[in-house]
Amino acid sequence: MLAANLRLWHTSGSLFRFKIPVRPYELYIGLRYTRAKRRNHFISFISLISMLGVALGVAALIVVLSVMNGFQNELRNRILGVAAHIEITGFDNTLGDWQSVAAQSLKVPEVKAAAPYVMGQGLLAYNEAVQGAVVRGILPAQEDSVTDIGHKMRVGSLTALRPGEWGIVLGAELARSLAVGLGDKVTVITPQGQITPAGMVPRLKQFTVVGIFQIGMYEYDSGLALIDLQDAQKLFRTGDHVSGVRLKLDDLYRAPAVARTLSKTLVGNYDIRDWTQSHVNFFRAVQMEKRVMFIILLLIVAVAAFNIVSTLVMVVTDKQPDIAILRTLGASPASIMKIFMVQGAIIGFIGTGLGLLSGVLLALNIGTVVPFIENIIGMKFLSADVYQISELPSKLEWNDVWVIGLVALVLSWLATLYPSWRASRTNPAEALRYE
After folding, report:
1. C-alpha–C-alpha distance, residues 121 and 356, integer Å
2. In angstroms, rounded to a whole number, what is the distance separating the alpha carbons of residues 30 and 346?
3. Tell me: the pLDDT tens digits for 124-150?
4. Which of 252, 246, 254, 419 has its CA nearest to residue 344?
5. What digits encode the pLDDT tens for the residues 11-43?
6. Which residues contact 380 (CB under 8 A, 6 or more apart)?
7. Which run of H or E residues covers position 200?
8. Sheet strands (E) in 100-198
9. Coil, strand or helix: which one is 14?
10. How far apart (Å, rounded) are the C-alpha atoms in residues 352 and 129?
């Protein structure tokens, strides 16, 4: 009826000429209300602030989650640069037929490499300094295929570990604590004692430092020492046995599925653990932190949505006469509601679009933006001496982007419901009483 009345006014030559758009009149009027008029510049300013608030919240969410994804990915790579994707050992923590286990494991297409290891605890002593560490026996030629330690050597190399020469490679922090360098003699004390006429005494063996590595994870740099596999077997008296076999996969995220496959295909009783089980608490904590951060930063978008509510309430109050005229021309309450929902949706849509664009651009270029800001303020956000990371990592996950955009649009749409409903309840007679 409203469209018919407006068309009649247009064709009858009345002074109140309306140019009817092709699009629905609710959308047309909602768009007109969004733009500034002579007497509602303040309302349009509040609309702009609401729009920028949504954009800021969305951009902040994308950037922060991308940085957290980057940190998580960086830490995962550093941990798995030392730890294995999958470890296979016996239920008594020893493995006698490790060659057979490695050969069977390599038959699985996803398994890229396999290497044995001997693991034990020991005390490392040099002069008056003593430090506890995990001593791992390795085959240097195969170790490079399952870990990145060979690429993280500060001095020396893994190939300097040769059977019978009793060489040792230390983490950088461990070497610093002991105050040792290449060529120094370090005494390793193992808990496996030996019986002598004087009673039980600890076993001691002197090793020569042939290399120092730095992974960037304090846990490994301060508490891991590497020796040759045969030397480790003699030191810990394991005979021909090893502690287990470590596997590297083409896709580390396939580790749980590959572990299940190996548990079915390997002949014998073995304990098979993938990296998600070995470091489950750490990665759960990181994931929980990411979710909590998402909820906290989502409050920024929620505050911007409340601004949309206040904006539309002011618009409804300002447009009472217009609403009354539209109602007298035949506009239904549903049409009035749609007009103001359109206005609020436009604010939310534009704000979300700006936020997505700016957030994605910033997340993809954070490696350039952060150094630029650091140069301006003369301060580094991440000190390599403290965090072992000199650049702020960022990994943009498009699933996060779509979820953030959808949530922002939903919140913006919900913010339009009450003001639009209030506008639809306007009584034309009351609104025009004092006009």
Report:
1. 51
2. 9
3. 998 888 898 999 999 988 888 888 888
4. 419
5. 434 333 444 343 576 676 766 666 655 555 666
6. 374, 390
7. strand 199-213
8. 111-126, 129-138, 153-156, 167-171, 185-196
9. coil
10. 59
